[in-house]
Write a structure and sequence with these properties.
The complex is a heterodimer of chains A (264) and B (235). With 264 residues, chain A is of the alpha+beta class. Chain A has helices at residues 6-20, 26-33, 88-99, 253-256, and strands at 70-72, 76-77, 123-128, 131-136, 143-147, 164-170, 173-179, 199-208, 211-219, 228-235. Helix content of chain A is 15%, strand content 24%. Chain A is globular. By secondary structure, chain B is α+β, with helices and mostly antiparallel strands. The chains are: A alpha+beta (264), B alpha+beta (235).
Chain lengths: 264, 235
């Protein structure tokens, strides 16, 4: 398998790190030097769909179910989803976090991204008839397990970063139900909070060889006044592999993410 | 030699061989006969399961260290684990393991090993014939692992290490030239054996080999453990 040149990886990594840290295009840098506020794009809504992946038939597992195994680009939200509708406390906290440039994002402190946060890095999915594993290149290079051989959730004695995920098939769609999540992670740089009542339903549908549609429903009566639904697309990579990412090695985010100094 | 002496020698040899197997039943066959190992859909032994090491995770004895590596080892032992990368939530690498469960998930072209402890991360063994991914990542914490089956043994070959991991908790060093070959066997349902051969032309004067045995964990799956979470304060 051909692997892309190191310089392409470095360019990609540099581009991604700009997204993750204080984004400042040239004109914004000039504005910042003049002491003017730079608008924070962390809460920008998607305006166009990502380029689709290659066509082809969906590979199947020995039991006839769709096989999600492969190296996938990150899930990216499609345009057109409604904004979440939040209770006042949550709307206020979200606004505060965005105005502070998401400086307190736990993801930058090398704790897990939780569910259903997507990072701008790749994932490797591995499907067996009883288990789907998601390996994350980014965040803390960890994993989620989705158990297909359990119909009941575990009894949760202590809320978890990734919760307990069980899945069942509805036709060719894998419906993943996750509970038992703690309230410490953010859903994204946009900073919406949640409580431990969080209940996430993900519907994974591999439309064809190169395209994995994911419909995410976030339910949390302690935070949202109605379900928050996102439509995302992941596309397959055929000429690439994940590289290692070690969050705690040379982690400079905590000292650099200073937020909006005027508001401290 | 006359016939009677030859027969006597042969008989003695046969008795000795039989006694050898009785006294050392681990050689050539498992000591305790358990249920047979399951098979995957492609007919290979299925290594899938949750496994925990039997006995100490530390390496038995020491590799034959070259002088510079021996000096570094002595310094680390004397410092009482001061710069242990594990304490900084950095990866263990592929030789150092925790006394905590690991989960293997086997598919025909890819075998994944999930770690409950250390960085709660994963290793991937590619069985699809690709070479080590060294042009993109020549040196990282876990190297690049490729594997193939030899009968019922999965042979995993790993190259492309940095020199930052410790081979075990006592501080055993290695260089970027480390080359690890692991041979995975599942002699029965409840046991996994990994026979390791380590070569390191910049740190060892000769290869170093040892074997670990793991037993199957049947009462639970991996738990969550994240290094940084104890010190994390949310806002």
């Amino acid at each position: 398998m051909r692997m892309r040149h190191v310089s392409a990886v470095m360019a990609a990594a540099a581009a991604v790190s700009l997204l993750a840290l204080s984004w400042a295009p040239a004109s914004a840098q000039e504005k910042a030097k003049e002491g003017k506020k730079v608008p924070y794009p962390g809460a920008v809504r998607p305006t166009k769909a990502p380029p689709p992946g290659p066509p082809g038939p969906v590979p199947l597992l020995p039991d006839g179910k769709p096989d999600f195994s492969g190296l996938w680009n990150s899930q990216r939200e499609l345009p057109g989803d409604a904004e979440p509708e939040m209770l006042p406390w949550a709307a206020a906290l979200t606004k505060q976090r965005v105005e502070n440039y998401s400086a307190d994002d736990p993801e930058a402190r090398c704790v897990p991204g939780g569910v259903p946060r997507a990072t701008p890095y790749h994932v490797q999915m591995v499907s067996t008839p009883t288990l789907v594993v998601i390996l994350f290149e980014g965040n803390i290079h960890s994993f989620r397990q989705i158990f297909l051989d359990r119909k009941e959730h575990l009894k949760i004695t202590e809320p978890l970063w990734y919760g307990d995920s069980i899945g069942h098939w509805e036709g060719d769609t894998l419906v993943v139900d996750t509970i038992g999540l703690n309230d410490k992670f953010w859903f994204g740089m946009s900073g919406q909070p949640h409580t431990t009542q969080l209940h996430v339903i993900e519907r994974y549908h591999r439309r064809d060889f190169g395209n994995l549609e994911v419909e995410v429903t976030i339910l949390d009566p302690g935070t949202f006044t109605k379900p928050w639904v996102q439509h995302r697309l992941a596309t397959i990579e055929t000429d690439w592999d994940m590289i290692e990412y070690v969050c705690n090695e040379n982690n400079q985010d905590p000292t650099r993410l200073v937020g909006d100094k005027d508001k401290h | 030699m006359n016939v009677r002496l030859t027969n006597a020698l042969a008989a003695t040899a046969a008795v000795a061989a039989a006694m050898w197997f009785v006294n050392f039943p681990a050689l050539g066959q498992p000591a305790k006969k358990g249920a047979p190992a399951p098979r995957a859909v492609d007919g290979k032994v299925d290594l899938t399961g949750v496994w925990i090491v039997s006995g100490s995770p530390n390496l038995p004895g020491d590799p034959d260290y070259l002088p510079a590596a021996r000096k570094l080892y002595n310094e680390r032992k004397a410092s009482g684990g001061k710069d242990d990368p594990e304490k900084a939530c950095l990866p263990n690498g592929v030789v150092r393991i925790e006394p905590l469960p690991y989960k293997i998930v086997q598919t025909p072209k890819l075998v994944v090993m999930l770690s409950e402890g250390n960085t709660h991360s994963f290793r991937r063994f590619f069985l699809d014939g690709r070479p080590h991914n060294l042009d993109v990542e020549p040196a990282n914490w876990n190297g690049s692992s490729i594997g193939h089956w030899e009968g019922d043994t999965l042979v995993v070959d790993t190259l492309g290490f940095n020199d930052k991991t410790w081979l075990d908790g006592t501080g055993k060093p290695h260089s970027e030239a480390l080359h690890v070959v692991e041979r995975y066997r599942r002699p029965d349902l409840d046991h996994l054996e990994i026979a390791y051969t380590l070569e390191d032309t910049q740190a060892f004067s000769k290869p170093y080999a040892f074997t670990r045995t793991f037993t199957r964990v049947t009462d639970r799956d991996l738990k969550e453990y994240f290094c940084a979470m104890d010190s994390f304060v949310g806002k």
